[in-house]
Amino acid sequence: FLKMAGKWAHACALLFLVNLEIINSLTFNVDPSKEECLFEDINLGTRVSGSFQVSTGGFLDIGVKVHGPDDRMVYSVERETEGRFSFVAHASGVHRFCFSNAMSTATPKTVSFSLIVGETSANNEVAKSEHIDPLEKSVNALMEGLQGIQAEQEYMRMRERAHRNTSESTNARVLWWSIVEAVALVALSVAQIMFLRSFFETRHRV
């Protein structure tokens, strides 16, 4: 009984490690011809997942580069609207996540970014034991699945937020265009009335 209780306690501890993940999600602007960088202190062996999406600005493209503490590049894309990445930190230290709008000379870009910093390999030492039993294997598989679900949820929330911003921006433009059309129609109607009145007054005098 004590052995089984110990296994369940171990399983609960592994599940609790999922809650140790750090989830960062934010939206920011990148000015034309500029680069914005975010920094995160990450330990060796930590699994890191991230996603990004450009919601407004120009052709909705951005350059993204991720550097390790030794300036080693672990991820790089150019002119992408959205994307996801995942890696295991090869060294402890501050990692740099940079977003470049160098391709634009006049239009700022609005970027939504989500970063999930998972558990370190030190927290997984017990999972690497040669004597791991089926229960622990199942819990480890479940934990990895939950981590994947968390990453996917963050990505979908980010996409939903970007689509909502696009929809609101489109609705605002449609509203203003409708107002401009209404004003133009009223002005045209007034001009026609004034022209006809002037025309008939001229004929009456003749």
From TrEMBL:
Annotated keywords: Membrane, Signal, Transmembrane, Transmembrane helix
Domain of life per record: Eukaryota
Main subcellular location of this protein, as a coarse class: membrane
GO terms under cellular component: endomembrane system; membrane
Xref: Pfam families: EMP24_GP25L
Annotated ranges, domain GOLD: 35-117
Bilayer topology: Single-pass membrane protein; Single-pass type I membrane protein
Transmembrane segments: 174-196
Signal peptide coordinates: 1-25
Subcellular location field: Endomembrane system; Membrane
Alphabetized PROSITE patterns for the sequence: GOLD
InterPro entries: Emp24-like, GOLD_dom, GOLD_dom_sf
Keyword S-adenosyl-L-methionine: no
Family indicated by similarity: Belongs to the EMP24/GP25L family.
Protein name as catalogued: GOLD domain-containing protein
Organism: Cryptomonas curvata
